[in-house]
Amino acid sequence: MKFLAWKKFKKTLTVFLIFSTLMIGGTVLAQSLSQTATNLEVADPEAEAGDIITKSDLGLVRADKPYDKNILGVVGKKPAIVFNRPGTTTLPIVTQGEVLVKVSDANGEVTQGDYITSSEQPGVGQKATESGFVLGKALEDLNTNQAKIRVLLGAQHVNMGDTSTLGIMEGIGWNILQGAQQPENFPEMLRYLFALLIGGGSFLLGFLSFVRTLQGGVQAVGRNPLAKRAIQMSLILNLIGIIILTGAGLALALFTILY
């Protein structure tokens, strides 16, 4: 009985590890795309390399309000790949990858790993300190009042300090919706879909396995009372395995969302 329980646990663990590896691989691939840009018509004549660009009724202009929901990307200087032919009023807009962004310390000291959002200063970013729309993550510290620093682009909605289930699910749903509306945000949408699939699937699989194992244990004890101790040990091993796998799946989903 113990051997069969251990064999079943190993099989479940193997399937979970294979599934997780595939999910992580897809996420990493989506996040590690080379810096690409698209030549787009920009209505703001003062926009230049490093400026944060947003969509407005006038067209593409420099973002000038904090946590702008319509952030599109950043004007690149020498992107690795550029789509569309350049024109007299076009600029290469980078939406994914590492890029130099104008950032100030208007909202506090900026250090590596901080989320960067738009600010009231046209085209200039700042540290995000509350829930809202951000441009990406700083890859280095800002050592002066204002300068261009490397930022890993990934426009998304983040929850600052809101760790409730409702807050997290709201953020995931918002990012999926934005990814569906804006093709340039597809890699970010894919990341949240992976997280939702991993977390939801792990919880559902763990719950169903727990119920099935509990029912099977009760029935086995009823059929063979003399083997009660062996059945209980098998039941405990199965429950421990289910808890570990479910916890690992939820942790992996959280890791995917945060990193």
Unreliable sequence segments: 21-34
Report how far the terminal alpha carbons are from each other: 41 Å
How many helices? The count is 4
Major β-sheet profile: 10 strands, mixed
Q: Give the proportion of residues in helices.
A: 40-55%
Total count of strands: 10
General form: elongated
Run of helices and strands: HEEEEEEEEEEHHH
Could you please describe the fold and organization of this structure?
The protein has 259 residues and is an alpha+beta fold. It contains 4 helices and 10 strands, in the order H-E-E-E-E-E-E-E-E-E-E-H-H-H. Helix 1 runs antiparallel to helix 3, helix 1 packs parallel to helix 4 and helix 2 packs across helix 3.
Which helices and strands appear, and what pairs or packs with what?
Blueprint: H1 2-31, E1 36-41, E2 52-56, E3 59-62, E4 71-75, E5 81-83, E6 90-104, E7 115-118, E8 125-127, E9 132-138, E10 146-158, H2 165-181, H3 186-223, H4 228-258
Parallel strand pairs: 1-5
Antiparallel strand pairs: 1-6, 2-3, 2-4, 4-6, 6-10, 7-8, 7-9, 9-10
Short note summarizing the structure:
This protein has 259 residues and is α+β, with helices and mostly antiparallel strands. It has helices at 2-31, 165-181, 186-223, 228-258, and strands at 36-41, 52-56, 59-62, 71-75, 81-83, 90-104, 115-118, 125-127, 132-138, 146-158.
What keywords describe this structure?
10-stranded mixed beta sheet, 45% helix, 10 strands, 259 residues
